[in-house]
Amino acid sequence: MHVKDNTFLITGAASGLGAATAERLVAAGGRVVLCDLSDAVEAHAERLGDAARAVRGDVTSGDDIQAAVDAAVALADGRGLAGVVHCAGIVSVAKLVDREGNPADLDAYTRTININLVGTFNVMRLAAAAMAKNAPGEDGERGVIINTASIAAMDGQVGQCAYSASKAGVVGMSLPAARELSRHGVRVMAIAPGVFETPMMSEIPDEAAQALAAAVPFPKRLGKPDEFARLAEQIITNPMLNGEVIRLDGGIRMQ
Ligand SMILES: NC(=O)c1ccc[n+]([C@@H]2O[C@H](COP(=O)([O-])OP(=O)(O)OC[C@H]3O[C@@H](n4cnc5c(N)ncnc54)[C@H](O)[C@@H]3O)[C@@H](O)[C@H]2O)c1
Description:
This is NAD(P)-dependent dehydrogenase (Short-subunit alcohol dehydrogenase family). Residues 6-194 form the Ketoreductase domain. By secondary structure, the protein is of the alpha/beta class. The protein has a single domain, classed as NAD(P)-binding Rossmann-like Domain (Rossmann fold, 3-Layer(aba) Sandwich), CATH 3.40.50.720. The chain contains seven helices and seven strands. The site of nicotinamide-adenine-dinucleotide (NAD) has 29 residues, from helix 1 and helix 4. The site of nicotinamide-adenine-dinucleotide has 29 residues, from helix 1 and helix 4.
């Protein structure tokens, strides 16, 4: 799948990994629909120029994501939606039992699962239905879906029951979705980032961020959003990448 002249939907595109991916795909000659809950998505789309459109939307809403997919199909000028890079998500921390002995809040758990896991399914189902209508390209390829997991899916820390479970669900869907969508010529991949310098991580105190950077075997630093975007671009353009989760983490394995 080429990036040039093809159209991609990017969720979570107002910030961090999604914003960097939108920038990279536009620089490579692609067109992008940026979808995010935040109104900052409009300013980012404007910065990216004519090749970008913004759609305010919630990844857990069928109507919102259908509108984003429709906007991408319209922007594609007859070529259809070529790919999705799904980055929207939230981080959450809560112990099962807190210091005072109180049980974790069930609604907070459900919210994380709903946005990170159900949101991913929602984006995949609507994007795949649109891609299945595309004319087949080389090898019969019609589209590619890239989801965002996390190394917390494998190396979850204390307090990450909800976040780790949501991301493990994203990992778990990759292979069955890739197997199912193979008949439509649509690939499904996931990227499991380590710790990246984005607004999501900016709430971590400096000391904790330095400790995390020191724990990375090489390079001893946090990941840069464009390094995520470069992997997304490689996945789009390399047709043999399918049904797999790629850790992008400098070799870190959390204790
Ligand atoms: N930054 C990291 O270190 C890191 C590590 C592993 C995984 N991830 C994952 O990468 C993805 C992107 O994270 P980021 O670091 O760029 O975070 P970020 O907070 O900078 O960006 C996330 C974006 O998602 C949007 N969003 C949140 N909920 C939404 C919803 N319901 N509908 C639509 N948009 C919504 C936010 O408005 C925000 O713009 C997330 O899924 C996150 O879990 C990040």
